[in-house]
User: What shape does this take?
Amino acid sequence: MENYLYFRLEETIGDDDDIAQSVMFPASSFMGCYPSGDTSLKVHFKSIFLQDVAATRIIQQDTDLTSTSIMVKQPHNLVTDTVILTITANKHKNVMEAIADALNRNHANGGGFVTVADNLTNYTSYLHENITACSTITINIAAAGADTYSSSFA
Assistant: This one.
C-alpha cells in the first residue's frame, strides 16, 4: 500500500463538502513542487480526472461523403492538479524535504495517510512547522490545448 497525502483548505468542518475544499492524492501521483513566491509553494499532482489527456479519433466520411476518413488528433497539454501551501518566508527547501519524506515514509512509521495541511479551525495540522496554511486547491476537469486535423481523401 502506498502513502496518501491529505490537504484541507476549509476551516469549518460543516463546509468541507466539495473537491475544492479537501483532497487526497496517492504518493504515486506526485509530479513535483516549486516556490511560487517568498511564502508559497506550489505542489503538482497527476490529474484526478484527466488520466489520458491525449486522444485520437477517426471520423468516417467527410461532409461531401467521398472521403475515407478524417483524423482528429487532440495533443492536449498535460494538466496537473495543484495545491498551493503558504509557508514561512523562504523555507521552501525545508518544506520540500518534509514532503519528500512523507512520500517515502513506510507504513510502520506513520505512513499510509499523511496530513500535509489541514486548516480546520481549532485542529490545524501541518506536516512541517514551516507550513502555515493550505491556501489553494485546484482540481482540473478539462484538458488544455487545441485540436489539430489531417484528412485522407479517396
User: Anything to note?
Assistant: The chain has one domain: 4-52+78-143. Residues 4-52+78-143 form one domain.
